[in-house]
Design brief:
Layout (H helix, E strand, L loop, with lengths): L5 H25 L11 H19 L5 H22 L4 H17 L11 H22 L5 H20 L2 H21 L8 H17 L14 H5 L1 H16 L12 H7 L4 H24 L2 H22 L7
Helix pairs in contact: 1-2, 1-7, 2-3, 2-7, 2-8, 3-4, 3-8, 4-5, 5-8, 5-10, 6-7, 6-8, 6-12, 7-8, 12-13
């Protein structure tokens, strides 16, 4: 069955390469979105590939649109705001309004948490916090070549595995399309980067992954703890953001004031090469995501053991890296 859907990831990858080459040449020729001579067109290329591949796949495989088209439309709006942000940096207030608009549209299409023990209002509030939180987590994660894109590939493939095992081919298509589009970007973004994803790319990836996470079925009545699966799969961006905020608060800085306290920059401060730091960060991302996938299929004591181990690793990394001396 997997081979039947292989054209999705291939199409998304090839389209991504074509779009990225086209937009790179366009940016250079028109001198737009090139603030540091490296074009910020990764988001446009990935988004265009993802959207076209999904629409073609939904028609070819005759799947139902429903909430899937809602994800595409709202993610496209998030992407458009990101492009404006890359061209002329928007204020924090404007970015927040853009995110609220996109999430509101997502909810109108029926994409939100459906935790049965909570009422509709609380589920909507949780959806806002979740999507906006993950969107900004990916934006903060985009601090070095290959990092945000690499983590996005790992997370999207993790969602693909869960949806495939659940027999949910609609979500499987979305996940494969996003993985293929992001892989095409990584060709040009691995160190040394020839293309950056920009705020448009990081916001688009974070928003789309957060939305996909909401429409996957994780827990049965016998394994309610498996609802923690999306939190763990996206655990690395969450952990990275929490670490950054903690380090800034420790320095008595506001959480959203820029500083060099990023986890990746602390690894660099230890003297590791960029390639080694990227490998370490992606390995941590794979650890979180793989743990989340296992949790989605596990029961009882095994889930508790995995969660405890993930927390243990998080505490160890936090303790060690918080002691690294870094300026700024």
């Amino acid at each position: 069955m997997f081979m039947h859907y292989l054209p999705v990831v291939l199409c998304s990858f090839l389209l991504g390469v074509v779009f990225l080459i086209f937009f790179k040449r366009l940016a250079s020729r028109c001198n737009i979105l090139t603030p540091n001579k490296i074009p910020l067109i990764g988001g446009i290329g990935m988004g265009s590939s993802f959207i076209l591949t999904c629409l073609a796949a939904f028609i070819f495989y005759k799947t139902s649109f429903s909430y899937l088209i809602g994800i595409i439309i709202s993610a496209s709006i998030m992407l458009a705001f990101g492009i404006f942000d890359d061209k002329k940096e928007l204020s924090v207030r404007a970015k927040f309004i853009a995110q609220i608009v996109s999430v509101s549209l997502l909810i109108l299409f029926g994409v939100r948490t459906n935790i049965v023990y909570l009422g509709g209002f609380l589920n909507i509030i949780i959806t806002f916090i979740w999507v906006i939180g993950i969107t900004n987590a990916f934006n903060l994660l985009d601090i070095m070549d290959g990092l945000a894109g690499g983590i996005a590939v790992i997370v999207s493939l993790s969602f693909a595995v869960i949806s495939f095992l659940n027999g949910d081919m609609n979500v499987f298509i979305l996940s494969l399309a996003l993985a293929g589009a992001t892989l095409s970007f990584l060709i040009y973004n691995l160190p040394p980067a020839k293309i950056y994803m920009g705020n448009s790319g990081s916001h688009f990836l974070g928003f789309t992954l957060a939305a996909i996470a909401l429409i996957i079925s994780y827990a049965s009545l016998e394994s309610k703890a498996a609802l923690l699966s999306p939190l763990v799969i996206l655990g690395f961006p969450i952990f990275d953001t929490a670490f950054l905020i903690l380090m800034r608060l420790r320095k008595k800085k506001l959480p959203f004031h820029k500083s060099n306290d990023h986890l990746a920059l602390r690894f660099l401060a230890l003297g590791y090469s960029k390639a080694r730091v990227l490998l370490i960060m992606l390995s941590l991302g794979l650890f979180f995501s793989a743990s989340g996938v296992i949790i989605s299929r596990a029961h009882g004591l095994l889930i508790s053991m995995i969660i405890i181990f993930v927390l243990f690793v998080s505490i160890i990394v936090t303790g060690k890296m918080s002691r690294v001396s870094i300026h700024g």
